[in-house]
Amino acid sequence: MLPKIPKANLHENIYTIPNILTASRLVAAPFIGYCILHDYHAMTLGLFAYAGITDALDGWIARRWNLKTVVGTVIDPMADKTLMTVLTVALAVKGALPVWLAVIILGRDVGLAISAIYYRWISLPPPKTFSRYWDFSLPSAEVRPTLISKYNTALQLGLMGMTTLAPVIPSVDMSSALGIMQYVVATTTIWSGASYIYSKDAVKILTPPPPPNGGEEKASGDKKEDNPR
């Protein structure tokens, strides 16, 4: 008798503290946009600071207590990009951010979002159903940010932080510094978008290969040959 091989557990625990902190950033993003559009500058700065603190904290907790999850590698950049999208749109609407820079930032993020949807679908273990597609406890592909992408995220957040800080301290002229940062962010945004296209390590498919066909039938046939009538 051949030993029965247990099926691999493809699910993971997604209800970890780092993932909860990341999810809270997702929830905070629309409130930040609302505060920007209604000129609640102090509240905008406070929520933005909360997002920055939790962004650093969830990564540290995940590394310190080994709470890394595959879904965390997906929703963490998703939370960053959601926050960046809300900030970009809201600040551009208010005239605090140039429209040309908003187009560059949003265009890159739309391209990455389409790529993420594509890789999630092709790497999803069968059966490929709508409900399984949105079951993030079922990992299928892992996103690995490139080095320039990490720098770009930090620079974008720095620019957004300076832009939200400027109305809180109107006595300080930050126009020159903001102008320089805008061109720097435009450059790194285009560079980081290209890095995902040309880097072979940016996305790792986690779907295990299917078992070889005929293994069970062969074992059954061998058993019959060992026990002739």
From TrEMBL:
A single GO BP: cardiolipin biosynthetic process
Gene Ontology MF annotations: cardiolipin synthase (CMP-forming); CDP-diacylglycerol-glycerol-3-phosphate 3-phosphatidyltransferase activity
Coiled-coil spans in chain: none
GO CC annotations, alphabetized: membrane; mitochondrion
Compartmental location: Membrane
Keyword Nucleus included in the entry's annotation: no
Feature: compositional bias, Basic and acidic residues: 215-229
Region (Disordered): 207-229
PROSITE patterns from the UniProt entry: CDP_ALCOHOL_P_TRANSF
Chain ranges passing through the membrane: 20-37, 44-62, 82-106
Highest taxon listed in the record's lineage: Eukaryota
Major localization class: membrane
Protein family per UniProt: Belongs to the CDP-alcohol phosphatidyltransferase class-I family.
The protein's name: CDP-alcohol phosphatidyltransferase-domain-containing protein
Organism (species): Staphylotrichum tortipilum
